[in-house]
Specification:
Elements (H helix, E strand, L loop, with lengths): L2 E2 L4 E3 L6 E3 L6 E3 L6 E3 L6 E3 L6 E3 L6 E3 L6 E3 L8 E3 L7 E3 L16 E2 L10 E7 L2 E7 L8 E6 L9 E2 L1
Parallel strand pairs: 1-3, 2-4, 3-5, 4-6, 5-7, 6-8, 7-9, 8-10, 9-11, 10-15, 11-16, 12-13
Antiparallel strand pairs: 13-14, 14-15
């Protein structure tokens, strides 16, 4: 396995690699192993390839492709930009556990999955299908607007088990 960080464009090996981009727009492909791929700043294109990969775009409007097998798409902060997942399937997970669902109440709070319902409280995560795409929206305050959005290509049915809250 290899560990490469702060590099603009990378292609991983057949092994489990740790690959990290720099502050620019990165194109990173993991290869065949179970890879950990992080894009950092910029509008990145991350492709896990074959394997059970972990992908984190970072700030910017990133395009994330997990590839074959069960992948984890990690989102760590509200200021990451609107990312797009191109190939979500039932074996994949969307991890938002690093984002505090209710920043006004102390340590990290988990989101509550509410399906497609309207926001009614702080700390809710909903799924909206519109215009041929699926959006995952997160609310961290008491209004009806989302503070964070993740786009998924196509109309994807998502349930609570698809998330790490």
């Amino acid at each position: 396995s290899d560990t490469l960080v702060a590099v603009e464009n990378l292609i991983g090996s057949d092994f489990g690699d740790t690959l990290g981009g720099d502050g620019g727009a990165n194109a990173i492909v993991g290869g065949r192993g179970n890879d950990c791929i992080a894009g950092a700043a910029g509008d990145d294109a991350l492709d896990g390839g074959t394997g059970r990969d972990t992908l984190a775009g970072g700030t910017g409007a990133d395009v994330l492709t997990g590839g074959m097998m069960g992948d984890v798409f990690v989102f760590a902060a509200l200021n990451e930009g609107i990312d797009r997942i191109t190939d979500f399937d039932a074996a994949d997970r969307i991890d938002v556990s690093a984002i505090d669902a209710d920043p006004g109440t102390g340590p990290d709070n988990a989101f509550a999955f509410i399906g497609g319902a309207a926001f009614t409280a702080v700390g809710q995560l909903r799924v909206v299908q519109s215009g041929g795409e699926t959006r995952v929206e997160l609310s961290t305050d008491a209004d009806s607007a989302a503070e964070f959005t993740i786009r998924l290509d196509g109309l994807v049915t998502l349930i609570a088990n698809d998330f790490v809250l």
